[in-house]
Specification:
169 residues; FAS1 domain; 7-stranded mixed sheet; 8 helices; 40% helix
């Protein structure tokens, strides 16, 4: 009996260690709500980059967020001919630093209610609070709400958003 408990304890600690060893890409791959994002990251050739050392903060749109785009948009972006445009859109969701929810909230407070966040794609996002919810305004004027925060991986953090963030034009 003691041997079985020890084996179960070892198995449980191994499972926790595996979860702690996940990159942000691994976390997204493991989420049924992010299969469209994962397909887009693969099509853009960004898997290796986003599996790298980081640190990164990713504002990760859900499948439902991609479904809000006009019909045919996602399918068009996933074609090889649209790789540059897809890469630009995806990198507008990635910050080259780890910013936990508390960090973002502090940036907003320090900015008197708004904070400008520069992404690896060259986009400037504007973060603000609406009650206790963080809102992210993209360069095209769209607004995303952070629906889950601080999904932490070995190379950064994911904040789930309910809209795709778009660059200007």
């Amino acid at each position: 009996m003691k041997l079985r408990l020890a084996a179960l304890a070892l198995l449980a600690s191994s499972t926790v260690a595996l979860a702690a060893d996940q990159t942000i890409v691994d976390i997204a791959v493991g989420s049924a709500d992010h299969s469209t994002l994962v397909a887009a990251v693969q099509a853009a050739g960004l898997v290796e980059t986003l599996s790298g050392a980081g640190p990164f903060t990713v504002f990760a749109p859900t499948n439902a967020a991609f479904e809000k785009l006009p019909a045919g948009t996602v399918e068009g972006l996933l074609t090889p001919e649209s790789k540059d445009q897809l890469t630009k859109i995806l990198t507008c969701h990635v910050v080259g630093a780890q910013a936990m929810a508390a960090d973002v909230a502090k940036m907003i407070a320090d900015g008197s209610g708004t904070a400008t966040i520069e992404t690896l794609g060259g986009c400037k996002l504007e973060a603000s609070l609406d009650g206790d919810m963080v809102k992210i305004k993209d360069e095209a004027g769209g607004i995303a709400t952070v629906t889950a925060a601080d999904l932490t991986g070995t190379n950064g953090v994911i904040h789930v958003v309910d809209a795709v963030l778009l660059p200007a034009n």
